[in-house]
Amino acid sequence: MEAAVIGMSPGETKTERILPENAYGEYNPEMAVNVERKHIPEDMAPEVGHQVKITQDDGSTIVAQIIGVTDEHVTLDANHPMAGKELIFEIELLEVVGG
Q1: Angle ∠(25,94,13) on CA atoms, nearest 5
Q2: Do residues 93 and 56 both lie within one domain?
């Protein structure tokens, strides 16, 4: 976004397009996995659209969205929700402060 305002004058507007590789990255299908229901905590009622925090073997955590639920599996997607999407911003420069 900073690069987009370079050269703009106060009051000027423009549309800026940011490609996926310069934003949240391309969608990676390998980051969507099916997990057997037996690995889901019994007290959890998984629903499509819910987010879950997963602790990995090294202790780090990742957030994944539930994108599918069957009697046997829960499908988790660890891609950022905006991965693979082009971002389009309408920018209006109001003023320049500092110097």
Answers
A1: 60
A2: no
